[in-house]
C-alpha cells in the first residue's frame, strides 16, 4: 500500500508549489549530530539542558559516595567491603526491580516489604515445620508473593481502588498473616547448609567464573548491538557507527572487569550477584524488547490511549502487580538467607522505603512512563553504599536514615525538575 | 450503491448521565464509499464514532458488520473486525516515540522480540507518503506539533488492514499541503474499496471527497444527502436545523427548547424508574 502512495506523492497536484519538496523526510531544522567525539559532547550537553539526565546523576552520586567514604576509611573500596555490599544489596535490589515495573505503570506498591516477609515465613514454616523440600518451599513462597500481588492488582484494576490504598492494606494485612504463619515462637531458623542459605553464602571461587561472566556480558552486548546496527544499515534506517559501538562496549567492559577483579580478590563471584544481575537483565529485556513491556510503558503514558489501542488494561495491571509480588518474595528469600531465618521483623523497617527509593534514585520516574530495570541496580548500590559506609564509620542508624532520606529527596527533586525541563524542551 | 453495507448502525442510543447524547441513530457505510458525518459542536459525532470503535459502547441499538449483528464492546473487537479509528483527541502516548505509537497494540515481532528495525523502516515509509516532516521517528510524541501528531494518528489507522476507516476531524490541525494529502488519502482508500467515515466541520473538504453526507443534530439523524445532488445551503440548514432565514431560525429554536425540556423530563422519569 505504501509504495503506491509514494508514487502519487511525486505527481503534480493543485496545491501550493511547496508541495513538491514536502516529501523530504528530514526536517532541515533538525539539529544533526556532528561526527566523532565532538558530536557526543554536544549531544550530551543538549540532553543535559533538556533534562534527559537518564542515569547520569546516580552514576555521579555513586562516584562521590565512593570517594567520600574512601577518604574517611580506606577499607570502603576494598574487595571485602564491596563484595559484601553487593551481596547485601541483592535482596532489596530484587524488590526494587518489581517496583520499577509498578512505577513505569504510573502506580505504587507499598506492600512489597510485607510480602517479602510473608514469603520468607511461608518458606521457613513449610520447610522446617512441614518437611517440604527447600526447592519446593521456595517455589511456593514465590507463588505466594505472586498471588498476593495479583490480588492487589485485581482490586486496583477490576474494582478501581487506588493502588496506593490497596497496597497499604496489603502492607498491614500481609504483615499480620506473616505473624500468624510464624506462630507463637516468632522465629524459624533455616538449615544453614541448604539451598536458601546458599543464596547469599555461595561464591564461585574459581577466578574464571567472575572474569568469564564479565567477558560473556561484554561480548553479548557488543554482538547484539553490532548485529542490530548491521540490520539497521541493511534496512536503511539510522544506525550507530562502529566507533560508537566500541565506545559503549568499553564503557560497559571497564566496570564489569573491575568488579570481577574485586570479587576475585575476596571470595569469588557471589551467587547472589549472578541471580540479581540475571533478574535485572531479564527485566530490562522484557521492558524494552517485548510487546508486554511496551504495553507497560504505554499505560504509564496514557491509559486511555492504551485502551483504545486495544490493550487489555486490566490484564497488564494485574500482571505487573503479580510480578512485583513475585520479585518481592524473591528478595525476601535473599534477606532470609542473610540471617538464615524468618522472624517477626522480616520485611519490616526501612525495607519498603529503601526498595522504592532505590528505583527512584536509579532514575525511574515516579510519574510513570519512564524508567529502566537498571535503575534498581544503580539505586540500590547508592543506598547500600551509604548504609555500608556509615556502618564502617560507626555512625548511628539515626543519621543514616536522615542521609538516605535526603538522598531520596534529592532523587525525587531531580526527577521532578527533569520532568519540568523536559516539558519545556518538549520531551515529556 | 446496492452492495450490502460493510457497516450499518441501527437505532443507536447513548446516554451520559443526564445527557441523551445519541437517540436512534442510523448510518450505513458501503465498501468504497465515503460518508461524511457532520453536525454542530456537541451534536454527538465523536460519541457515535466511539460507539462504533468500541470505546464507549452504545446503550441501545445494533451494529451490523457485513450484514450480521456484532457486539463491539471494546476497542479490540472493533480492530479485529477491521475498523480503524482516528480519534478527535488523537489518543497517543506522549512518552512513547513515533514508532512506538504507530505500532502500539500490534507490534511487529521477530522470534517473539520486538522488531524495531522493521517497524522503524515501515514508519518512515508511511510517514513519507503522508508528506509529513518529523525530525525523527525516534523522538517522543510529546515533542511533535499538533499537526504532526494528527498525521501520526492518521498513519496509525492505516497500519492494520482495515475495511472501514473512521476519521474524526482528521484535518482540524493540518496545513494546506497536509490537508490535501489526507483528502487524497481518503480518495485512495475509497479506490481500494474501503468504507470511510469522515467527520468534519469543513464543508469544502466534505464536498470534495464525500459521496454522502449524514447530518446529526442534537444526537439524532437529520437527513442523509447525496453530495452531487445537494447544495451546500441544504446541508448547512440541516446542520443548524433552520433555513437561512432568521425568523424560521428563531421559531425552530423555540420548538427545540420545548423538545429538549420534554426529553429531559422523559429522561428523568426513566431514570427514576430504573
Ligand atoms: N464522557 C462524556 N460524559 C458526559 N457527556 C458527554 C461525554 N462525551 C460527550 N458528552 C456529551 O455528549 C454530547 C455529544 O458530544 P460529542 O463529543 O459527541 O460532540 P461532537 O459532535 O463530536 O462535537 P464537536 O464537533 O465539538 O467535536 C455533548 O453534549 C457532550 O457534552
Ligand atoms: Mg467531536
Automatic annotation (TrEMBL), chain A:
Keywords: Cell inner membrane, Cell membrane, Membrane, Sugar transport, Transmembrane, Transmembrane helix, Transport. One of its GO terms (cellular component) is plasma membrane. Residues 1-22 are annotated as: Disordered. Signal peptide: none annotated. GO terms for molecular function: transmembrane transporter activity. The chain crosses the membrane at residues 53-72, 84-105, 112-129, 135-156, 163-183, 203-224, 245-263, 269-287, 314-336, 348-367, 374-393, 399-417. Pfam families: BPD_transp_2. Its main location: membrane. InterPro entries: ABC_transp_permease (IPR001851). It is found in: Cell membrane. It is a multi-pass membrane protein. Part of the binding-protein-dependent transport system for D-xylose. Probably responsible for the translocation of the substrate across the membrane. This is Xylose transport system permease protein XylH. It comes from Streptomyces mashuensis.
